[in-house]
């Protein structure tokens, strides 16, 4: 199974740079995370997805969440700022940015973002970093819960 995942990952990585392969980038990001909770491995796929579609807020949200998970909180906040700029009604991006501010000890900013997130979507997860998986192929759906990738 691991060999199949590695082969599929290599195929998707190769195809990711070609025009029209945006979906492959999103799928490859999740495939790269799933075997070992390797958050850093997914970041290059989001880099490529953003290069292909720089107006796609979900890619910024997810890359920002991954940066936070890997300890690059400031880079995560920058991506989440961009996600919010592109889609100001995205509760998940506000919730993720709140978690980043909390990690930095900036409780006032964290509280403001949590309030905004819950005003946009009362059901948004506010106790952990969230990855948006709705745009990933249905076979491959994962999310981060308590710092671990789990299948939905």
Layout of helices and strands, plus pairs?
Layout: H1 2-16, H2 22-33, H3 39-52, H4 57-69, H5 73-86, H6 91-103, H7 107-120, E1 142-145, E2 148-151
Helix pairs in contact: 1-2, 2-3, 3-4, 4-5, 4-6, 5-6, 6-7
CATH architectural designation? Alpha Horseshoe
Number of continuous helical runs: 7
CATH H-level superfamily: Tetratricopeptide repeat domain
* Sheet with most strands: 2 strands, antiparallel
Q: What oligomeric arrangement do these chains adopt?
A: single chain
CATH overall fold name: Serine Threonine Protein Phosphatase 5, Tetratricopeptide repeat
Percent strand equals 5-15%
What are the defining features of this structure?
152 residues, mainly alpha, Serine Threonine Protein Phosphatase 5, Tetratricopeptide repeat, two-stranded antiparallel ribbon, disordered N terminus
Describe it for me?
The protein is built from 7 helices and 2 strands; from the N terminus they run αααααααββ. It is mostly helical. The chain has one domain: Tetratricopeptide repeat domain (Serine Threonine Protein Phosphatase 5, Tetratricopeptide repeat, Alpha Horseshoe), CATH 1.25.40. Strands 1-2 form a two-stranded antiparallel sheet. A hairpin with a 2-residue loop joins strand 1 and strand 2. Helix 1 packs antiparallel against helix 2, helix 4 runs antiparallel to helix 5 and helix 5 packs antiparallel against helix 6. The longest helix has 15 residues.
